[in-house]
Amino acid sequence: MKRKRWSVIIAAAMALVLLALSPMSALADDGQEFGAKPGITLQGALAIVAPRVAMINQETRMTVFLRADQEPFEGAGVWAITREQAEVFKEQASALRQDETVKAEEKDYEALADIHGTFLGQTGPNGKVYHEFTEAGNYLLIAFRNGYYPGSTWIVARDAPRALAIEAPGRAGVGEDVTMTVHNKATSEPVANAGIWAITRDQVDTVREQFSALRQDETTTAEEKDYETLIGLHGIPLGRTGLNGTLTYAFQEEGIYLLVAVKQSYFPGFAAIGIRDAVGVLAIVAPQSAPVGTEVNIAALNRLTLDPVGEAGIWAITRDQVEAFKEQVSALRQDTGVTASAKDYGALVEFHGTLLGWTDGNGRLSHTFDQAGIYLLVAVKQAYFPGSAAINIRDTSQVDQTNIESATTDNGGVTQ
Length: 416
Fold this sequence. Notes:
Blueprint: H1 2-21, E1 44-49, E2 53-55, E3 59-66, E4 77-82, H2 83-98, H3 109-116, E5 118-122, E6 128-132, E7 137-144, E8 148-149, E9 151-158, E10 164-167, E11 171-173, E12 177-184, E13 195-200, H4 204-216, H5 227-232, E14 236-240, E15 246-250, E16 255-262, E17 269-276, E18 280-285, E19 289-291, E20 295-302, E21 313-318, H6 322-333, H7 345-352, E22 354-358, E23 364-368, E24 373-380, E25 384-385, E26 387-394
Parallel strand pairs: 1-8, 2-9, 11-17, 18-25, 19-26
Antiparallel strand pairs: 1-3, 3-6, 4-5, 4-7, 7-9, 10-12, 12-15, 13-14, 13-16, 16-17, 18-20, 20-23, 21-22, 21-24, 24-26
Helix pairs in contact: 2-3, 6-7
């Protein structure tokens, strides 16, 4: 009895192994086979690989290979059959498979595929076929070659998702015009009447989470999803784009913002921008030394552009006040409680120095010193960081002082 029981078990196991090793190719949804009657040997089985989703009017690549060695298979025909026709095709293919009046190698499944599907092409040496689907839908892809079990897989063809993209500079100054452009991400065409919103840093994570949840909500179609109402709960409206897809806006507060472009039936576009309180930097041009009682020409310039700066105050600070002035300038510059353009360096220099006058429209001022000494000249104007330079006013009746380097530092002693 034991020997007989073991014989049954071994026979069943061998049957399972043989079944697993038999070349088979099934339709993706129900495992129905194509091929020959038992006892008819075919050359092998094909397989077809394709993306699960194909975009309408965009080239899609499909690859056919031989299952046995995974090598690309040349000369296989590939057909696409709609879901509606797939059931009819499978029934007729099953009937043909069971038809014992026709030899397995002579059964023409390709003729059935031609009746119910669309021929996409024949694979080349690399086993590939390329096709652009023009209609949305679910398709059964089948690869045929006489003498081989067919390969099959499903693919979904659909319209490319409409999404916005927004272009903007990475940073800009407070009050500076910022031009933003919104376009279709897929086609790069400008999108008019798109709303642009600014999200502060503390709201960014909340907005991303809610957008993601709305995008994944399958109870609402992509065209019906209302991202604009959602962004309106968290963002600052900047305006809507014109016909050329652009919008210009001037931010009035410093910060890092997430720009969000929204329009019905589009997925939003995003871009980050940093807004800072931009200030200019002054430079002062003057001779290194001059005799007492002679006129000294002084000029104030924009250090970045070298343009003359009018209405800048020019001050002279004596040597004993320079260090105290520099410390207070540094402290004010680092004070984050005051915006850069609102910092009053003029009040500091007024406390430590003597006003020589104000530059004219050409950024120039002339002054005659009546006392010898080493001075730090400082140019000050609101919304600018001060510029400075050292000057030695010599008493010609005494030996000239020659060592003024100790009073001279980068930017004349005022560090940026």
